[in-house]
Design goal:
The structure is a homodimer. By secondary structure, chain A is α/β, with parallel strands linked by helices. The first copy, chain A, has three domains: 161 residues, Up-down Bundle (Substrate Binding Domain Of Dnak, Chain:A, Domain 2), CATH 1.20.1270; 154 residues, Rossmann fold; 240 residues, Rossmann fold. Chain A has a six-stranded parallel sheet with strand order 6-5-4-7-8-9. A six-stranded parallel sheet of chain A has the order 13-12-11-14-15-16, with helices on both faces. A two-stranded antiparallel sheet of chain A has the order 1-2. In chain A, strand 15, helix 26 and strand 16 form a beta-alpha-beta unit. Chain A is globular, with a radius of gyration of 24 Å. Chain A starts with 15 loop residues before the first helix and ends in an 8-residue tail after the last helix. At the A-B interface, helix 3, helix 4, strand 2, helix 5 and helix 7 of A face helix 3, helix 4, strand 2, helix 5 and helix 7 of B.
């Protein structure tokens, strides 16, 4: 099995000079981030430093063989000696590793569950007139979603329909009828439906799936690793459901993304403006921040600024980027660096992936850190309890915090890097379909599948996941992307992966010229010529925030439908070169159950069990047609992805030849 | 802060001789268990050995400052150095410790949630005629519960009412109306209702509370330890709800326990009989096993046995003990020892607290290990998927496994210890009320409250919780119980605590003579004389399995109502001298929020944060009137419990004096 990258044991560097040497090439591939770390970090401790301070990390924890699920523990499993090879209760490595993995998936699923539920509740509030600052921005999407989940939209007003759709989405969280979750069942292929039924992993209530897997993994419950993993996969499908609810509700409330051009990286911060960084995952608040900033422009000018500039961080950043063209300042690992420019007047966080260190960091500057979710606070940060009923007023309060902070700026501390780049975003699956329809209006997705069958494209890859300090920031994303592009793989991206690629200029048309292989170039050019998109076509199609990974799944389903096959035969792969969050575990897990090869670049804690490792890499393939490719070397991982695509395309061609010979449909198995 | 007991670092003993020395006094206070370990353990590795093999345990894990909530981890916090005092994300010790605690509570709550839901579904199936082998065994309890939760039972058949009650219970799991959970709200005092509302910890959907706290504790969410702990307390109240549902449904289905006499400890196994040990927590299966054993008696006799003997282990054991007088063979830590007698022909487990080592252990004997729950398997054990529709038939299949195994018994390996003792059980709160009513039919609970006010009794203590290999088995329970009894505290017990006290003969009338102080003696004698209970009155009132801790809460509410005060002023304390399971964490937490001092004898992993420790021991008192007493020395812990009771009684007397002087009601605050 591939193992961890070498870490520099005990290398704890507190001096800036020594740190610079380490940071230069090893810690980040982001030029702007590197500049900030080199020019603005004297005496400031960041997650880059804390990573080094944590070396060496505990090998029991790294490999998943430490169990703390009861007060007898912690138990740490060693392969030698019968007594040591089991925890006090008798749990062996495979039980402990599987439990840890399943609980990690539950962590991810609960995050997306809460996110989706929040969005559905917001839509319900809109429908019931309780959230006056919001509206159904995309009635067409509302109607598409309604049809998709079995609601007849005819003769219903937007409000009536919004209520019905919102309640049906909430029903996936609260119902007791033991039917498959609507937002899962409506979006998958018949083949997957049968597979999930056969393997008994269809969740019937989103929160019950999470509760059950936690219960399954307490002391003295399930010791069977395969059973536990299947419990985890059921939870992963619940995760998918919550994500799809979130994406659908967000599109209805804020609009289905369409191609938009903006800029990315820390250089988007502007000294003359009041800079408000919105950070987290939920578009509900950030959408209002944008509106509030517009309305408070005069106050900003009065305070001496040229105006208010909203920039995005992490997935809240992606939400604003793809729908409003708001520039993206940072992805996960460079959130601290944004504050270290000295030019962020307020950082507003909602939920997930913000660092608890932001407060102690912002204390070194004038930056006002504002938390807004009742279940996501940072001690001593300013907390403004955001709610949809008073959304705009609260957003104004927050923006005014930035205006006040601006007045206290220390100009000596301002160090904004020059680096920024053009970035395209907004490539929802619907937007991609429109582009393809310019070539083939009747069967838009056939443009894509034909290109794969002809060998022009090797297939499609979706970039997902985070940053992880265990590897140099963004390097994995960039390496894999460049390799795949050269090998004619059409690239989609979400979340911090999309952020990485955007910051490096890979979501631009220019990158096509620089990195795309001939097939990918000719494919994109053909579409560009037919569709004439305003901003051209980028090398990487930015699909949104991390909940928007479901857009990739929807796209793969379109391909499967076009071919008349099930997902495990579609040349579509997923890569998370820098997975970090529990959400990445759950997303990766459902992509595997959906039937796709999933490359993971940072090892999750499963290496302590050969069995669990093998279930992920091999048994999963036998059962679901998808499997994990664990490879911490990005180039090697990328090669394996291309191999996986080639294998699928090769099989497709064989099946195509057979189908033509016997005049039948394509074989749908795998 | 009190710290851990000394552990014998690195002392790993594989030879029986050396082990005996260690085991003799240090590892268990149970005479039967000691005998088995000394006489039947050659070459067999048990949890007693695995505990030693795990020494030294990781101090980061022990104190809760190891975080593995994302793939960047594990991060281990050290107090020195700014970089090391935070995880890679910037989380400090208090965040990490609080997260771990909250997730532990979620583990407990999910266990009880699933248990309660299963019981409610079974009642629904009975009501709908889908579980023909079960019935409403206690229509009076059904009606009492209906009234308690706001259902009018008048004019309804048992079936109709059972359906309504079951659906209302399930509604606590599936509803979306944001009202307080029915099974919480119906059983608490007005004071607690107001307190929980004020502190915003009332759960409105049981599984949502669990999902939310998992989401609250993912990477990049809540960093505020107090906020996280309050999320944990909300989840703990969800835990209470699931437990009360479980207890109520079990009483309706299988009968509210009434005093019953039987025997306890490993000596209850009989060589001439086919011994079937039922183990786990859920009475649904075990109830059928008892019936199946009765019906299959002829087959057993044909196989050469005198008959079939059912014995209980853990809380399934307690369920059968209190309702059917089935003898209790073992509590948690001696479950392996039961198999090591060589006389257990089948061990049947349902859910929770069974050791994964049971299979490898039973492979050394003829014992057939049968798992029965789809979410709680042990690899290579016989699995029979139990369901309520075919309950009796499946139970017969299981008992037949025992009959078959009996034929393969190795007589040379049989080593049954002589130790067993009489044991009384079945002291539900209703049963205790009946006893008290013999003295005062109008106001039965006044018999108890008067005894406390007069000083005859010091108060009431409830024993809860597990065994934990970190301390000598049962020793904590016995030490605390004897100390409290001597100090005239009325004793209740549940779960493995009750098992420990039963096995040591403390649930007998004889123990009153041996251990009770004069006040407790006279109190019990007075009731005994009035009620003339068939088996006399024991020193400790065995209230059932661990979900039945809610019976203790109900009893405390009766006391509070009698006095007209809120719970934090009732001289009622809780002790878990050997807490081990995540369920113990959640139970302890809700008892604290209910307003009681809760002694905990094995440190949960919170010592890494002074703040979290102080919230549990001090802030909790200020907010809820209850708090944790962490004390790993059982006698010292017991003293603190008596002090806590004395303090409450002293205050009560002051308030009584004031109330009499001014002719008012007792003050209800704390």
């Amino acid at each position: 099995m591939p193992r961890f990258r070498e870490t520099k044991v005990g290398e704890i560097l507190n001096q800036a000079v020594a740190r610079k040497k380490i940071l230069d090439k090893v810690r980040t591939a982001d030029a702007a981030g590197k500049w900030v770390l080199e020019n603005a970090s004297d005496g400031i401790i960041t997650s880059y430093d804390r990573y080094l301070a944590q070396q060496p990390q505990c090998s029991f924890g790294l490999t998943g063989v430490c169990c703390r699920n009861c007060v007898q523990g912690p138990c740490r499993i060693m392969p030698t000696g019968e007594a040591k090879s089991r925890g006090i209760c008798g749990a062996t490595a495979y039980t402990i590793v599987a439990r840890g993995l399943a609980r990690g998936i539950a962590g991810g699923a609960s995050s997306h569950s809460d996110h989706g539920r929040h969005m559905a509740k917001t839509l319900l509030e809109v429908a019931e007139g309780r959230a006056p600052d919001y509206k159904v921005s995309d009635p067409a999407k509302l109607r598409r979603v309604a049809l998709k989940v079995g609601i007849n939209p005819e003769g219903k007003s937007d409000r009536e329909l919004a209520k019905e759709v919102a309640l049906k989405a909430l029903n996936d969280y609260y119902r007791f009828d033991e039917k498959p979750l609507t937002w899962l069942d409506s979006y998958i292929t018949p083949g997957r439906r049968a597979k999930f039924k056969h393997t008994n992993i269809i969740p019937t209530n989103l929160m019950q799936a999470i509760t059950e897997v936690i219960s399954q993994t307490v002391m003295g419950m399930d010791a069977d690793p395969v059973n536990i993993i299947f419990g985890g996969l059921k939870t992963a499908l619940a995760d998918f459901t919550g994500m799809h609810v979130a994406t659908d509700m967000s599109d209805i409330l804020f609009g289905t993304p369409e191609p938009v051009a903006t800029e990315a990286n820390l250089g988007v911060l502007e000294e003359e403006y009041i800079n408000v960084a919105t950070h987290g995952h939920n578009p509900t608040l950030s959408d209002m921040i944008v509106e509030a900033a517009l309305q408070l422009e005069p106050e900003a000018i009065k305070a001496g600024a040229k105006g208010i500039k909203i920039v995005g961080v992490c997935c809240t950043g992606n939400e604003l980027l793809m729908r409003k063209g708001i520039p993206l300042a940072a992805n996960q690992a460079s959130q601290e660096l944004a504050i270290m420019t000295g030019a962020v007047d307020a950082m507003v966080v909602d939920v997930q992936c913000f660092l608890p260190s932001l407060k102690v960091l912002s204390d070194n500057y004038h930056t006002r850190l504002v938390t807004t979710a009742i279940n996501a606070k940072i001690p001593t940060a300013t907390h403004i309890d955001f709610n949809e009923e008073e959304a705009l007023e609260l957003a104004k309060d927050i923006v005014r915090q930035a205006i006040e902070a601006y007045k206290r700026r220390n100009k000596d501390k301002i160090r904004i890097p020059k680096e920024k780049t053009k970035a395209l975003a907004g490539f929802s699956t619907e937007a991609i379909e429109s582009l393809l329809a310019a070539v083939n209006p009747e069967q838009p997705w056939k443009v894509l599948t034909d290109a794969i069958e002809s060998g022009e494209l090797a297939g499609v890859a979706l970039f997902a996941g985070c940053n992880n300090q265990k590897v140099a920031q963004d390097e994995g994303h960039l390496t894999v992307a460049k390799y795949l592009a050269k090998n004619n793989v059409l690239l989609l991206a979400t979340g911090c992966a999309a952020g990485a690629l955007a910051k490096a200029g890979l979501t631009t048309p220019g990158a096509v010229e620089a990195y795309a292989g001939d097939g990918l170039k000719s494919f994109l050019k053909r579409i560009e010529e037919a569709a004439k998109p305003q901003y051209g076509l980028p090398l990487v199609f930015h699909q949104g925030s991390c909940v928007d990974n479901v857009r990739g799944l929807d796209l793969a389903v379109k391909m499967a439908e076009t071919w008349g096959i099930d997902l495990p035969r579609v040349p579509f792969v997923v890569t998370a070169p820098e997975d970090m969050h529990e959400k990445a575990l759950s997303i990766g897990s459902w992509f595997v159950t959906m039937g796709f090869p999933v490359h993971v670049g940072v090892m999750p804690p499963i290496e302590g069990s050969e069995l669990v490792y093998s279930v992920g890499t091999q048994i999963a393939y036998d059962v679901f047609g998808g499997s994990f490719i664990f490879d911490t070397d990005p180039e090697s991982g990328a090669k394996k992805l291309v191999d996986a695509l080639d294998y699928r395309t090769w099989k497709l061609r064989i099946h195509r030849a057979a189908a033509e010979k016997y005049n039948t449909a394509l074989a749908s198995g795998y």
